[in-house]
Design brief:
CATH architecture of the largest domain: 4-Layer Sandwich
Number of strands: 12
Helix content: 40-55%
Oligomer: single chain
Largest sheet: 6 strands, mixed
Order of helices and strands: HHHHEEHEHEHEEEHEHEHEEE
Distance between the termini: 49 Å
Length: about 375
């Protein structure tokens, strides 16, 4: 159903772009046929980028995934800019009508073509500029965000305890080993006490992406690296194989479970729940199991991929939830849609008495474009009080 809906939306977007940028700007003939064929080919590349890795694997998909996903970003902004220009086009429509004696029908056609071509050129330049700017952000190094967080029940022995939080790394056809190596190096430079990887690590199988994930074994922290599943971990058939591989790389996978972090006699509980997408695999979140047996003296920090899981965490008295999933909206202005589905887009907020921190993620999904929402790695510095 998702593929049908997405395909229908993409089809309508391409039809609209064809009408405004091909049919309205050209006369019947060779130029229109060539431009129409080019648009059809671009849509085919986009569908291949979206569906090809799922059916044929991520290995070797880069040659069509890169142009396909770049076109995805371009057509999104072409549609948006053309829609913004619609009111202007309607206002200027009277300029194209042959309603004056000195203006012939030929003049009217020429003026309509000029108006359509000016609008198409404006949309093209704007879309290329926006996608280029967003690609520079998405493919560059993530920002390093340092955030102080106060926890009432935290023992002063943990003052300054640093948790490096990273999510949505999205290893796949577009992002590989070099991406992982850069993230690992940036995290290690912060000298964290603990590393939390909160889901959406891979978009492919262990055989395809195991080498790309291998640098994760080089993560260094005093308490270790912890992982919880995101929705994309359940989009691949080898969920269990990936979790086994991550354990082999030295990561502790928290599957609806918790562990205790100690510093002398002081302690706090670190828990993790599966992503809600795991419900389709009978492997969904179980908060009661994840939070079973916690100490009453120290705070509880929960790793949960989606911010919306804060609702169940808050009623159970969790002190701090660490999440990702939103990409901070990734491509402006789509953050408005994300805000409708999630309680927080990015940063630190409070739901009831539970603090929620959402990182924008270190990778991207779909178009290699991040506009108004740069990639980031977050380092939380805990404070008591």
């Amino acid at each position: 159903m998702f593929i049908v809906v997405l395909g229908s939306i993409l089809g309508l977007m391409h039809l609209y772009v064809w009408k405004r940028m091909v049919k309205d700007t050209t006369r019947p003939g060779r130029a229109r046929r060539w431009l129409s064929a080019l648009l059809i080919a671009a849509m085919a590349l986009l569908l291949a980028a979206l569906l090809g890795p799922r059916f044929f694997g991520a290995s070797g998909a880069g040659w069509y995934a890169w142009p396909g996903y770049f076109w995805f970003g371009l057509i999104v902004y072409l549609v948006l800019v053309l829609l913004v220009l619609e009111p202007v086009r309607r206002v200027l429509r009277s300029w194209t009508r042959p309603d004056r004696a000195e203006r012939t029908p030929v003049d009217s056609v020429d003026r309509r073509a000029f108006l359509a071509r000016a609008g198409a050129a404006t949309a093209g330049v704007a879309a290329v500029g926006l996608v280029g700017t967003g690609a520079f952000s998405a493919l560059g190094p993530p920002n390093l965000l340092r955030v102080p967080v106060r926890l009432n029940r935290l023992d002063p022995a943990f003052d300054g305890f640093r948790i490096a939080v990273v999510s949505d790394i999205h290893l796949g056809p577009l992002l590989g080993r070099a991406h992982t190596e850069r993230i690992v190096a940036m995290i290690n430079e912060t000298e964290p006490d603990l590393v939390a990887v909160v889901g959406d690590l891979v978009d492919g199988t262990v055989d395809e992406l195991g080498a790309a994930a291998a640098p994760l074994r080089d993560l260094v922290s005093r308490e270790g690296t912890f992982f919880v599943t995101g929705n994309h971990e359940y989009f691949v058939e080898e969920t269990a194989a990936w979790l086994t591989e991550l354990e082999r790389l030295g990561m502790r996978v928290l599957r609806n479970e918790n562990t205790r972090i100690r510093r002398g006699t002081a302690e706090f509980d670190l828990a993790g729940v599966n992503d809600v997408a795991g419900t389709s695999r009978s492997d969904g979140p179980d908060f009661d199991r994840a939070l079973d047996g916690l100490t009453a003296t120290g705070p509880t920090i929960l790793l949960a991929h989606q911010p919306v899981q804060i609702e169940q965490a808050a009623v159970r008295g969790v002190d701090l939830q660490l999440s990702g999933h939103t990409y901070g909206g990734q491509m402006w202005p789509f953050h408005y849609l994300v805000e409708l589905a999630q309680p927080s887009l990015a940063g630190l907020s409070t739901v009831q008495n539970t603090q929620l921190f959402v990182t924008r993620g270190a990778g991207f999904w779909g178009p290699p474009v991040r506009l108004g929402a740069p990639p980031e790695i977050s380092v939380l510095s805990l404070r008591s009080g």
